[in-house]
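User: quick one - fold this with tetrahydrodeoxyuridine bound?
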Amino acid sequence: MQLIKKEIEIEVYDTDSELQAEDQYLLRLARESMELAYAPYSRFLVGCVLLLENSAIVKGSNQENMAYPSGLCAERVAIFYAGANYPGVPVKTMAIVARAQDYSIQTPIVSCGACLQSLTEYEKQFGKPIRTILQGEGGKIWIANKGTQTFMPFQFHVEELKR
Ligand code: THU
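Assistant: Sure. Structure tokens for the protein plus tetrahydrodeoxyuridine:
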């Protein structure tokens, strides 16, 4: 028998005043983006901001649809926009925040599996982690310096599909 063990690392901060100025700025932008979510069905708003290596900023928010599965999460709105408009440019840092209209979210919300699959493939494409900052409406802040694979240590990856 062989054992596969993977270790993950998440920094936890109590308030954003403990963060470096750039991270505070990205969280602020993520909050602004979050308020632009179109989420009349779930009443759950998510904002996702990407800082690219070329200093460009990409903003995303969840966009829902009456035909529920047609909607898209904030993270994929942002990462696909980055791929479409800044091809070849890696993402340095990503900030994600969430707010519900009917209750208070005081813990960081980790992206869904479909978003993590898309984000981890972006990381693999460039061989660079997307440093990830997470916060709910308030409460503790999580920073994953090793990127989104922190939350999805294994992902669907078949190199042959690129042939
Ligand atoms: N949502 C995101 O934007 N990101 C995630 O990672 C998970 C969920 C959105 C989708 C939907 O509009 C709402 O949150 C409730 O699921």
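One thing worth noting: DSSP finds three helices and six strands in the chain.
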